[in-house]
Design goal:
The chain is mainly alpha-helical. It has 13 helices and 2 strands; from the N terminus they run H-H-H-H-H-H-H-H-H-H-E-H-H-E-H.
């Protein structure tokens, strides 16, 4: 490090002010080996075993990816993300891909962070949870002068409410369309680099994207939820079988009917981890049958079955 700093000082004396500033910034940026010595170098197998073709390809690919990552990595970067990136079987070659990979593999942490950021933003003034009219396929060819108040509205109560995705409350580039908070470099949620201004080319946090995918398709993350429950059924306490399924404790149709007036950050909890459970399939089937009977009973009691209530349609 001392020799490199001395060499940089000599070069700076011979170069112009712009080149000197660029070289100083490059010299201040630590290498991967200096950041995480234990993970910077690829692992080696037994000395007497020759690597397979797949192992050789992976090592060559990871060496190129690490070199590219080190070249584009800023001096300040989340250590946990870098540790995750270097420990992956296939290392991500850019800082943004490293951030996305981190949140994709820490989905429950992303869920908590996205809901915390939404609570920090709060509910926009004048916003109410509404659904769009018609179906998505009937509005693809809509005229250019369509009502902006309908733009961005979900078409089902099963989609989480997102006021900052709706045209009247959209904050534009530089703010996350999911939680409403500023977006900084690499889709990060904090200004680690002290720029003071958000990234005007981004419209979402990497964590919020991962959380959104988790909210609309929690069954894709059944392994993480099983592990969190200790592989025990949330209803019976018995061992979770391979056919176990993800279930919402409070059904979403009931949220639309009974909890619609709650503040927006509180509503997100019904799509996130607090309202999710993994149960064995037999229990899930019985629960779904009871909920279907409840909806049918409510339709029979209503004066106009299903009129004006999207929750009246069974899935």
């Amino acid at each position: 490090m001392a020799k490199r700093a001395a060499r940089v000082k000599t070069d700076m004396a011979e170069a112009g002010p712009v080149e000197a500033k660029a070289k100083a910034a490059k010299a201040a940026r630590p290498t991967l080996a200096e950041r995480l010595p234990a993970l910077a170098a690829p692992g080696t197998g037994p000395g007497d075993a020759s690597p397979s073709a797949a192992s050789s390809w992976r090592e060559a690919r990871n060496a190129a990816a690490r070199a590219r990552l080190e070249k584009s990595l800023p001096a300040i970067f989340p250590t946990s993300v870098l540790r995750h990136a270097l420990a992956r079987p296939l290392a991500p070659p850019t800082p943004r891909l490293a951030v996305e990979s981190y949140w994709r593999h820490h989905i429950l942490r992303a869920d908590r962070l996205a809901r915390a950021l939404a609570a920090r933003s709060g509910q926009p003034e004048g916003w109410t949870w509404r659904l769009g009219e018609g179906r998505p396929d009937t509005r693809r060819g809509a005229a250019a002068d369509e009502d902006l108040a309908e733009k961005g509205l979900p078409f089902s109560f099963r989609v989480p409410p997102a006021p900052f995705r709706e045209a009247p409350h959209a904050l534009g580039k530089g703010h996350c369309c999911v939680c409403g908070q500023p977006v900084y470099r690499f889709g990060w949620h904090r200004d680690l680099w002290g720029t003071g201004t958000p990234n005007r080319n981004a419209a979402w946090h990497a964590a919020c994207v991962a959380a959104w995918k988790f909210w609309i398709a929690p069954a894709d993350h059944v392994k993480e939820l099983k592990r969190r429950q200790g592989h025990r059924c949330a209803q019976s306490g018995k061992r979770l079988l391979r056919t176990a399924e993800v279930d919402h404790r409070v059904p979403l149709y009931r949220i639309w009917r009974e909890e619609r007036a709650r503040p927006w950050p509180a509503l997100l909890g019904y799509w996130g981890l607090p309202n999710l459970q993994v149960v064995n399939r037999a229990i899930h089937v019985d629960k779904c049958a009871a909920e279907a009977g409840e909806r049918a009973s409510m339709r029979r009691r209503a004066a106009g079955p299903g009129a004006g209530d999207p929750a009246a349609d069974a899935e």
